[in-house]
Design a protein that fits this description.
By secondary structure, this protein is α+β, with helices and mostly antiparallel strands. It is built from 16 helices and 21 strands. The radius of gyration is 22 Å and the shape is globular.
């Protein structure tokens, strides 16, 4: 579908009418990118991909009109908002229409324990609005400032808050989704309960998410701490114990081996003598209890920030150091790439119960190639950790040899060097996602190329 004749776009524009749209080179380049360049494998594959037209609907009715135009004229359609993904989820492989839903950013309603928001609502803005309500979003990625709730659901997995609330795939993490289908006469489909899995982490291949309904948590005053430990093993043991301390409210438990804070200018002062560090967000009244657990594991607090100061850093950009969550999860990779643009990263999942032993094995087996930082979290009720380690990149062959060895030793790799949804679990999760795509995108126009096995073999016969 790439390289369609110019005439089709005149017809598309005419059909869109007054819906805002642009096709200048600067806008097409800006809106056709995400953070795929974290990967030296994806960068040459995706850096030249461009949409033919960026369409920016202002409300759901305009989303429906744009979806109808795409279906009627058989134009590929790729959905994006904040564009903070890392695997090219929002990169249009085959050109076409880039549907930017950022303007759909309203809070539709909020009640105790839940809220309904348009898909383009930014997570930081959501928390700003919820502050006076005494509530907060339960989890968000380190890109909280730019990331949207629809993007988190379509392309993310977890983040700050996962140490308490788990992943977006945990039961109850997403209550309902509204989706617009891509058909000549688009339908509005409401998915509730387990049915949300049909479009969860699906890269926008099977419907345009327009509204989200999520649980909210009572607001805490989140204080920040950095704690130094003599080595990664001690820090990891603390991370496990602190995350398991159910009586302490916590939002972030991020562990970094010594080489990482030593390389990041803003973190180095808080990691004396080559120490490993824990970056923490804890309910301020319980910070003393947190520090006691840290001390029992050989930790020394090297940075304290009150909840009021931490909130000013996040909400208003005040303070000498950014919100501490911006040094965790995949923001760590961003900071390390500024130091050494030749490195890359992986995404690892460690099994509960054996996670600390396997962390030690990875650290020793790949000492010269992998720098570990760990994100402690709950996965379906059990405490474990994932990791987004910094990896010394020498060649694709060596990178995938490391991946194969990790997978063979119970450290599951979610490949961040592929844009294909199939490689991210599409075939391994019986969620009804493939069947729903057949209904919501009957012409196969949504984010084409992101599913290797589409259409299904039986449909192609």
């Amino acid at each position: 579908m790439a390289g369609r004749k110019a005439g089709i776009w005149a017809e598309v524009k005419a059909a869109l009418g007054d819906i805002p749209h642009a096709d200048d080179a600067a806008t097409l380049k800006l809106k056709s990118r995400d953070f795929f360049w974290f990967s030296p494998i994806l960068k040459p594959q995706l850096e030249h991909c461009r949409a033919d037209l960026v369409v920016a609907p202002r409300n759901r009715d305009e989303v429906i009109r744009a979806a109808s135009v795409a279906a009627r004229l058989r134009v590929p359609i790729t959905v994006r908002a904040g564009g903070t993904g890392n695997y090219g989820q929002a990169v249009p492989l085959e050109g076409g229409m880039l549907l930017d839903v950022s303007a759909l950013d309203r809070a539709l309603w909020v009640k105790p324990g839940a809220g309904r928001f348009e898909a383009g609502a930014r997570l930081l803005d959501m928390d700003r609005g919820l502050f006076a309500e005494g509530q907060e979003v339960r989890l968000y990625p380190s890109t909280r400032k730019q990331a949207t709730i629809g993007g988190l659901i379509a392309g993310g997995a977890g983040g700050a808050g996962s140490c308490t609330w788990g992943q977006i795939s945990d039961p109850g993490a997403v209550l309902a989704l509204q989706v617009v289908t891509v058909e000549e006469s688009p339908r509005i489909v409401e998915l509730r309960g387990p049915d949300v899995l049909k479009v969860l982490h699906a890269y926008g291949v099977n419907g345009v998410i327009t509204e989200t309904e999520i649980p909210l948590a009572p607001r805490h005053d989140w204080a920040e701490r950095i704690v130094a430990f003599p080595d990664l093993a001690a820090a990891a043991r603390f991370g496990q114990a602190f995350t398991e301390a159910d009586g302490i409210a916590k939002r972030l438990v991020s562990i970094h081996e010594p080489r990482i804070p030593a390389a990041i200018k803003r973190l180095k002062p808080y990691a004396p003598d080559g120490a490993a560090i824990a970056i923490l967000m804890v309910s301020e009244p319980q910070a003393e209890a947190c520090e006691a657990i840290a001390a029992a594991h050989g930790g020394t607090v090297t940075f304290r920030r009150t909840a009021e100061a931490a909130r000013a850093a996040a909400f208003d950009g005040h303070g000498a150091i950014a919100p501490l969550y911006e040094y965790t999860w995949n923001h760590t990779t961003l900071h390390m790439l500024k130091v050494d643009p030749t490195i890359t990263y992986l995404q690892l999942r460690f099994p509960p119960g054996r996670n600390l032993d396997l962390v030690a094995w990875v650290g020793e087996r790949f000492r010269d190639e992998i720098w570990l930082h760990l994100e402690f979290q709950r996965r379906f009720g059990r405490v474990t950790n994932s990791a987004l380690p910094i990896v010394k990149f020498t060649s694709p062959e060596r990178l995938y040899a490391i991946v194969d060895e990790l997978n063979a030793n119970e450290v599951a790799v979610s490949d961040p060097h592929s844009y294909a949804l199939d490689d991210a679990g599409w075939k391994r999760v019986d969620s009804g996602a493939a069947q729903f795509k057949s209904l919501a995108d009957p012409h196969g126009l949504m984010n084409p190329g992101k599913l290797r096995a589409w259409p299904p073999a039986e449909a192609a016969e």
